[in-house]
């Protein structure tokens, strides 16, 4: 294999090509981001000088382009894992101006897709490398806030608090259970249990949700009984199979 000089030394041609391709991608991304920032500055200057607001769709397109550039960086360079976070944030910011075109409808829920989009950035960080388990915490918290923002009017203040606490509890359960490339984080179970306990207290203080619990409690009891029956049957079946295997005569022969 032919060698090519690189920084005063020689490296294999295939490696040099890979380095050059990586440098070209990085250069392209920086140029695109620079142009987008330049365009954003021009729009801000226009709004300031002309005292006129730039159309929301124009901002949405610019923000979406910025999000696409960061997502490209995330997939093109493994070392640029952090770019998923601004990619998600810009995506959420791009959705908001479009929803605001309907102020009496979708415009009232702009924070829901924004928080959910920012959450996807953190989940992408974790999915690329499970050793970055810390990204699950902001990812789950932001997703919980998105849900809370969407149901606040329907469930009221106490219900919203219960959902927030339960969502955070589930987040820490995921922190404890999801793979991370290292030992399990058992401390997360303690945090999850504490949050779930507080959420239960809040739920019990909410009359509307207490009515729901009146239906969920019998279902939970039925599910628990069904699990006990199934577990006993499975254990009995395994013991019977083992006993039958032990009692089966084996054929012996001489070689």
UniProtKB/TrEMBL annotation:
<protein>
    <recommendedName>
        <fullName>DUF2157 domain-containing protein</fullName>
    </recommendedName>
</protein>
<keyword id="KW-0812">Transmembrane</keyword>
<feature type="transmembrane region" description="Helical">
    <location>
        <begin position="56"/>
        <end position="74"/>
    </location>
</feature>
<feature type="transmembrane region" description="Helical">
    <location>
        <begin position="213"/>
        <end position="233"/>
    </location>
</feature>
<feature type="transmembrane region" description="Helical">
    <location>
        <begin position="187"/>
        <end position="207"/>
    </location>
</feature>
<feature type="transmembrane region" description="Helical">
    <location>
        <begin position="81"/>
        <end position="99"/>
    </location>
</feature>
<feature type="transmembrane region" description="Helical">
    <location>
        <begin position="158"/>
        <end position="178"/>
    </location>
</feature>
<feature type="transmembrane region" description="Helical">
    <location>
        <begin position="31"/>
        <end position="50"/>
    </location>
</feature>
<keyword id="KW-1133">Transmembrane helix</keyword>
<feature type="transmembrane region" description="Helical">
    <location>
        <begin position="105"/>
        <end position="126"/>
    </location>
</feature>
<feature type="transmembrane region" description="Helical">
    <location>
        <begin position="133"/>
        <end position="152"/>
    </location>
</feature>
<keyword id="KW-0472">Membrane</keyword>
